[in-house]
Structure formats: structure tokens, C-alpha cells
């Protein structure tokens, strides 16, 4: 059986990669992918602790996070399409405010 520390190290690494992507990229698609990485790291933690304690609550929370991630992607793609339509680019530093 794999110890829980390995799962936590994996989740920490994935979360750090996602955080690095959020902090360094200007492209909205990279933002979405980086946030998805951070949510997946949280899912790994939920499932690892669920396995460690023998309780299914962490797996249920992971399913809710997956549903939240799907909704976040749907809304994020809509925002990206509006950015591209209004400004011709998906760089998040170009628009300073969204107008009607």
C-alpha cells in the first residue's frame, strides 16, 4: 500500500505547478488550465485522506469539486469568448474593464 505522504507530495507538486501558471501567465486559457490543476490537487488530497481514514466523505467531496470544475470551465470559456470577441485577444492584461 502506498503511504499517504506520497499522495500529499504529488498533490503539493501539482498545486505548485498550477499556482505557478496562475501567477506567471497572461493568457486566459492558461489561467483555466492552472485553476483546473489546483482543483485536481485538492481532489487528490480529498481522496488520499478518504483512503487513509477509511471514510467515503473525501470521495464525495471530490465528486463535488469535479462538478464545480465543470461549471467553472463552462463559465470560463464563455468569458474567454467574450474577451476574444470584444478585444481580439485572450490576453487578460489587455482589457481594463468590461463594458456593455
TrEMBL record:
Gene3D superfamilies on file: 1.10.287.3510
Sorted UniProt keywords: Membrane, Oxidoreductase, Transmembrane, Transmembrane helix, Transport
One Pfam family in the UniProt entry: Oxidored_q2
Subcellular localization(s) per the UniProt record: Membrane
Cross-referenced InterPro entries: NADH_UbQ_OxRdtase_chain4L/K, NUOK/Mnh_C1-like
GO CC annotations, alphabetized: membrane
Domain of life of the source: Archaea
Membrane topology: Multi-pass membrane protein
UniProt EC number: 1.6.5.9
Transmembrane feature ranges: 6-23, 30-54, 60-84
Top EC category: oxidoreductase
GO MF annotations in UniProt: NADH dehydrogenase (quinone) (non-electrogenic) activity
Keyword Protein transport attributed: no
HAMAP family linked to this entry: NDH1_NuoK
Family indicated by similarity: Belongs to the complex I subunit 4L family.
PANTHER family linked to this entry: NADH-UBIQUINONE OXIDOREDUCTASE CHAIN 4L (PTHR11434:SF16), NADH-UBIQUINONE OXIDOREDUCTASE SUBUNIT ND4L (PTHR11434)
Name by which UniProt lists this protein: NADH-quinone oxidoreductase subunit NuoK
Organism: Halorubrum rubrum
